[in-house]
Every structure is written in structure tokens, then in C-alpha cells.
Please model this.
Amino acid sequence: DFVIDGPSTTRVAYIISEKHERIANAIMYEMKRGCTEIQARGVWSGNRKPMLFVVLSRGEINYLKSIVESIDFEAVVVISEVHEAFGEGFSQLGVK
Model:
């Protein structure tokens, strides 16, 4: 990954869990990472559930997975590559 993506590749994780509050607290206080709660609705069930959105470094992915697994091993976790992330905790946008 390092050779292909370079050293600063960022990842994003989407987490859907009934235990979203506990997972969010662990992300914020154990990982020292911010996360965003997005309201989502299952199309099949019609049920509304919060979804956590977290931007991470590649090196933080295993830590995140261990946190989620320890709290809710049935959580849905989707991890994707991000080409750029700007803002607090990341690079400045730098548009002039």
C-alpha cells in the first residue's frame, strides 16, 4: 500500500451500530479522533439509525476495527480510501 498510495493516504470509515454512542466515545477519547453522526435509514426495513463517519490514517484502521469489534461485533463497518481530506486535524484547504 505504501509504495502504491504513498505515505499520506487517508481512509474513511462508515459504522452502523445499535451501540453507536459507545463506539463514538471510544473513537473520540481512546483514539483521539473526531467523528460525525449522520442520520441514515435502512431502505428495506425503513428503520432510522445513526451512522458514524470517521476520517482516519491508514495506520489507525486496525485500532478502529478492534474498538468496534470489542463493543459490537455485529456492527456494519465500511472502510474506503480517501484521496484528500482537509480541515481540522488534516491539511488546510489552501485555496486562494
